[in-house]
Specification:
The chain has about 150 residues and is an all-alpha fold. The protein is built from five helices and no strands. The C terminus is likely disordered. One of its GO terms (cellular component) is membrane.
């Protein structure tokens, strides 16, 4: 086997695994894309707060901590497990509500955490973004449809 064949095999396996995971999470739609992006942004901004500003609330010194980083990644994995649970509930009830509500709840939580991190960095943000995220979190926590969050 040459290097190109090995590379193509590895890429094919990764693509198949990614596709299977996305399918298990209810499909690669806008809600899942936004959630994954917000999770990555939250992790990155949290890392910056610890690495540069040394003001992380996740460690004793406020600086980077491998333990805090691992716990953060573990929490994000559990969030995705809850999205999976929502997708399974939707399959069991022939609906598309539970998974979307779980996604919206975590999108709001991750978004609010990103705003908290940017505030620690001294970066201002428009108040309407926080208000919008608060409304989404409250609506999804109360079990309302996504469209009801904007009314």
């Amino acid at each position: 086997m040459n290097a190109l064949h090995i590379k193509n095999t590895v890429l094919a396996v990764l693509a198949a695994a990614g596709s299977a995971i996305a399918q298990a999470l209810g499909g690669w739609d806008v809600a899942l894309k936004v959630l994954i992006c917000f999770m990555a942004l939250d992790y990155a901004t949290g890392w910056l707060v610890a690495a540069i500003w040394h003001k992380s609330g996740k460690s004793k010194t406020g600086a980077l901590s491998s333990d805090a980083g691992f716990k953060g990644l573990a929490k994000k994995c559990v969030m995705l497990a809850l999205v999976w649970m929502g997708a399974l509930l939707d399959q069991a009830t022939s609906s598309d509500f539970a998974r979307d509500a779980v996604c919206m709840f975590f999108i709001a939580n991750e978004g609010l955490s990103i705003l908290e991190n940017t505030a620690v960095m001294g970066i201002p943000y428009p108040a309407f973004i926080k208000n919008m995220l608060d409304a989404i979190r409250q609506a999804s926590d109360q079990g309302k449809q996504n469209t009801e969050a904007h009314t």
